[in-house]
Amino acid sequence: MSAAWTPQDWKKKPIVQDVVYEDQAHVDRVLNKLQRLPPMVSAAEVDNLRKQLKDAALGKSFLLQGGDCAELFDYCSQDPIEAKIKVLLQMSLVLIWGARIPVVRIARMAGQYAKPRSKPTEMYNGEEIHSFRGDNVNGFDPNDRKPDPERLLGAYFHSAATLNYLRTLLDSGFADLHEPSKWNLDHVRSENVKREYESIVTQLIDSLDFMKTIGADNGTSNALQSVDFFVSHEALLLNYETCLTRKLASSTTKEMKWYNTGAHFLWIGDRTRQPDGAHIEYMRGIENPIGIKVGPSTMPEQLVSLLNTVNPNKEIGKVTLITRFGADNVEKHLPQHIEAVRQSGHIPVWVCDPMHGNTKTASDGSLKTRHFVDIIGELSQTFRVHERNMSKLNGVHFELTGDSVTECIGGSMDLKDDDLSTNYQTYCDPRLNYEQSLDVAFLIAKYYENERKTKDFPNL
Ligand code: PEP
Ligand code: CO
Question: Which residues bind phosphoenolpyruvate (predicted)?
């Protein structure tokens, strides 16, 4: 980062996916208020995540990132927060067990309120209205589509309340590995999934018993009683992000640096990663680890130039590359990306998002869905392509929820196209439900078990 960088510099660059408000004076009042509100995360937490992601980039740990496509203010409530944390904890437990390496957990949560859209408007009852841009811009209700600046403050307070409850949960032993059985398997229909999860829990309890017997675990070990949990969102609304960007002392060097204090990790979407655009300009200046979505339209040389811009010192793991090509496109694009990045000398965290390249329209012609086989297809090919190219997949990124929604087709509960309307709740992209999320974790865990033996991805 050049010494002259400031959090406002992006305003001189062309911007896409911007929100236009009617009353600029109202926007200014809101931004002034946001600027005075306290940080939500600390420099030490962000530095800690950066360290953990360096390990992930070096293949010493595995990143699990997941949560809603569009988080709603309404999800800021006890049950949905607990359900999401529970499914991410259970998935991470399965992954640790299978892969035998630590898992870094980042939730798409406590701020994932803004959405880029392919079209700024849509037709409703013969009238053109703004598309839903996420709860921090406008409402999903067609009568509430006018962008409202007050929603930016709503985003701050809902993020803060969500994060506060997440911290409360972790502090009060929700993530205690001594009691994984309390994360019960309500709503899981498949006997196989239940059996496999329970078998891991039994083995874990046995191992903990053994450790207690030999005195290695006296029940107060921090690593077993609680876990690190980080929060993330897409850095889309740059005015909001700028207000939460503060100069803080680095926990390691004590130097004053710019941190985004609204989340530990931020990413740049596939629609906003223009090399000379406002979003890249903003992202290059912050200390936080950042993600860049990489899609079929990303040219390998453009990817390298983006990496040089946002990470000129080539810090290992500072950037997470989240590939999302679609199940049919991995072989075509990923090898070139891996090779270009290798030659550039950058060492990113390679992550697969098997969701965003695999969105389809259901047979009713209106609902968006994703097929579990495509998701697993993209994931397994990404594992293989990395392996074949002497690289390693370091993590996964999912749109998921802890609830029993019916938005994606397939999985061990065998959801069919006809079942989608039973509990279709998403306001944006279709998410894996609780059981499908565990299914994916088991498949990845099995890949690692097989890797130790045959190096093959398990069949469905
Ligand atoms: C998202 O992650 O919700 C998203 C919009 O993804 P992408 O930018 O990869 O399309
Ligand atoms: Co999405």
Answer: 108, 293, 324
The letter for the amino acid at 7 is P
Q: Is 271 annotated as a binding residue?
A: no
Strand-pairing partners, residue 332, are: none
Question: Strand order in 360-361's β-sheet?
Answer: 360-361, 368-371, 408-409
pLDDT 10s digits, 210-224: 777 777 776 666 666
**Residue 98: closest CA among 454, 455, 459, 444:** 444
Nearest Cα residue to atom 10 of ligand 1 = 270
Q: Please give the sequence-ordered ranges of beta strands (E in DSSP) within 23-68, or none if there are none.
A: 62-67
% pLDDT > 90, the chain? 80
Pocket of ligand 1 (CB under 6 A): 69, 116, 269-271, 293, 324, 356
**What is the distance in A from the centroid of ligand 1 to the CA of 270?**
6
**Helix (H, G, I), strand (E, B), or coil: what is residue 92?**
helix
Residue-range domain boundaries for the chain? 9-175+226-456
pLDDT band at 174 (very low <50, low <70, confident <90, very high): confident
What CATH number does the domain located at 9-175+226-456 have? 3.20.20.70
Q: Which residue has the tokens 């595995």?
A: 62
Q: CA–CA separation, 186 vs 198, rounded Å?
A: 13
